[in-house]
Amino acid sequence: MILVTGGGGFLGTHVTQALRDFGEEVVIARRQGPTPVDVTDLASVLALGSRYPITRVVHLAAAGLTEGSTLDKLWADTLGLFSVLRAAYEWNVERVLLASSIGVYAGVTPDDGFYHEDARLPVASPHAIPAVKKIAETVAAAQREVPAVTARIGAIWGPRGRSASPFFAAPGLIHQVVRGEQPTAAADDAIDMLYAKDCGAAVAHLATSSRLRHSAYNIGSGRVTSNRELAGAIERVVPGARIALTDGGEAQAALDVTRLSADTEFVPAYALDRAVADYTAWLAVHER
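Structure (tokenized):
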């Protein structure tokens, strides 16, 4: 049985669905509901082990982009990390998969245009999210009691996601188009994007694969997608959609997904046009 912390959130819902599609039994830890779980409280997490035979853990719960001080976010996320790892140790689990971020590569300038998992990461971080992810990766690598793997996840977009992101344009463009607006974007801004359903499947593969040879894996498409490409897909898929592209922009490096491809059976199922069609169809029903 696999415990998914943050299983009721954006990424968690897709991971949970993918795991169930794989035939796995899943326990969801969420803050709200009939049996809420506070991952910052060790006793709350340990109580799950008395009710369910948990054998693996996918730790996705995080303070994220909520309002509040950076220190409060780091405090909560670090408490959650240690509570989950301690519980996993007590339960003698087979694997803990910790969600990390493409943001840990901030400050890295690869020669070949790809972020590789063995790159030396700078200590400094431009945002609380990569800062706490680096903490998690450092702790996971330093301890030996719990089999831990980290997943460095790229720019994810799709159903249940935010209507806009401070890190890339895709969510905002899609939501504005569905609302009948004409958004603008820098044509050449580009980032490694992966559709949420594909991301859920990739995480599920890492959680369930019988043998992983590395302690860190990138999860992404393995290429950057520019706003120009995205706008083209939106205009092909959505009748009447128009996006005003401005000159310029910056292309980030792509995530090298060689390890993920070699050690799991994951293959993305959603090419750009299919992802746009799926997301806009979902929004047409769920966002009015």
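The longest helix spans residues 70-91. The chain has one domain: 2-159+194-222+254-269.
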